[in-house]
Amino acid sequence: MIDLQAKAIAMGFPADIRWECRPQWQRLYVVQDGMCFYCDCGLLKESHGGPQSHAVGGQRPFTRDHVMPVAWRGRTQENNKVLACEPCNQAKGDSYPTLEMAKRLVRQCKRLGLEPPSWCHRLLIEAAA
Ligand SMILES: [Zn+2]
Fold first, then answer.
1. How far is the centre of ligand 1, averaged over its atoms, from the C-alpha of 95 (Å)?
2. pTM given for the model
3. Which of 40, 41, 67, 95, by CA, is between 20 and 30 Å from 31?
4. Structural domain boundaries of the chain?
């Protein structure tokens, strides 16, 4: 995880916070390269997704999203959470994740050192069948 810590510092996050102790959104931001999970647009690091936030210089405020929506019994754990821009979050709503989203989430969980949620494997197995 030391490479991610170095990357977090290079991205302007405080150097005196260890990787494991960083707020969840910072870890997601670093692992997602500061981009929306769904459309890869740039996200504002300073944003906390509040309604008063506006896009600045082409970067959008981030929101937190559950890839498997809570409405579909998605868990509120780190391996199901991503940072997304507001338009993507709105567009996705409570819709069921696509295969591409499952693939992305598996990659992201690996980078975070987390076990991907079991529904990711189910989607991948169904797609391969
Ligand atoms: Zn987006």
1. 15
2. 0.90
3. 95
4. 2-128
